[in-house]
Request: fold
Amino acid sequence: MTLVPIDDPSDPRLDPYRAVRERDLVGRAGLFVAEGEVVLRMLAASRRFAAVSALIVDKRRDKLADLLAALDPDVPVYLVPQAVIDTVAGFEIHRGILALGRRPEPVPADALLAGLPARALVVAAVGIANHDNMGGIFRNAAAFGAAAVLLDPTSCDPLYRKAIRVSVGGVLAMPFARLAAEDDLPDLLARHGFTAFALSPQGSTRLADLARPPRAAVILGAEGPGLPAALLARTHTVRIPMAAGFDSLNVATTSGIVLHRLAEADGLPVS
Amino acid sequence: MTLVPIDDPSDPRLDPYRAVRERDLVGRAGLFVAEGEVVLRMLAASRRFAAVSALIVDKRRDKLADLLAALDPDVPVYLVPQAVIDTVAGFEIHRGILALGRRPEPVPADALLAGLPARALVVAAVGIANHDNMGGIFRNAAAFGAAAVLLDPTSCDPLYRKAIRVSVGGVLAMPFARLAAEDDLPDLLARHGFTAFALSPQGSTRLADLARPPRAAVILGAEGPGLPAALLARTHTVRIPMAAGFDSLNVATTSGIVLHRLAEADGLPVS
Reply:
């Protein structure tokens, strides 16, 4: 491993970590920011994502020895005092662990679906603009063994620092693809033999009554606006019955309820 | 309705709203802060909670006329410019709506359970310290028709501003009681005929295989530590099967999955 102690917060090698909170919203050319031990472990183990560097509070070095050893030996690990990581990042990094990862080449949705097994569950996010919800959806997709996540052009970036953190690394574990503007989601799913289930409070089938086809896609829209009527008209619509007068579920929670129901039939191993 | 225009941010009538973010963490004697239109509507409609005053950006007054009319006519509604509400609260109040509510006398858990119907679902939170998770649990409890929420002595306050907001008002809709230090949760539930289901990754029964007794209690612990072993030993333990290698669910999402499963049998009306 390549350990590089740095004491000067103005050291240019720390530039990619400056003002992390503001900059990761506008994106860095080809990079993303990972935060915390669990996420860095998943980055180190990933085949799709490569770590570019890591920034660690020096007093955490010994406890993280196995994690640092799991990184490619050429990846520089900058070791700094707590005050330096806070100054550079622009806010308190309680866990003392940041890393930069490289974004892989985007995979076309068509190619991603074509490569999935005959029995597979995918999630499609339509208009999901909130990073917490995006992270929660990826976390549930990973927990219930989904094979991939599709994102429409208006959904937010799952490789945003907070989305990765909320997903507990699920974003790094779960293959995903963003649809191009000209892609048509129902056509795309049908072409690959996926039955499209669109969640809506007015859905025609109760979730509990749903039969699980071998290839199933769960389509989720944003709280409030929900899914476009034109999309609902071309899919199997599914509802989750709720108490009269309190028809309100968070979209990440909805993903958990639906994926649990559809994954049951797969006899997921208890981990 | 009692409309009181105020232009001076130092007006003493606005004192209870000062530095809301800091102060609602330490609590105000007998009061809580509600935020946003949906939550204020639930406060106005509540029989358990009374509004003490409201603080509204003046330009939103006309759009909120029906809501303001629903408040007790004696409750003062302070109308202020946007800059005044932001200055007083100490951060940007985008929605332009705050209110103070009065905390009701606490109900003993024993009395709350005794008053529930013969068929009822309750949620018990043990060591839930995160306000987002607390809000999410209440939101799901309300959505799936739970009758009450119990809180152990170490769980956080659901009447914290952010927990109420995340619950979409569920905290104001759902009866709840906090256990005293000397209360024993399994004893309490057994005394009132509730079967206690404790969620744990090592639970002995799969959620999908659970039979729904008339009175059921779902016990949830914090992510990470989970529920105490002594509690698990005295309850029916339940697991949600997950993918190998990614055994990770958010506790609010867990509450949604379990409550949906147990409420199915109740044939909840689709709202």
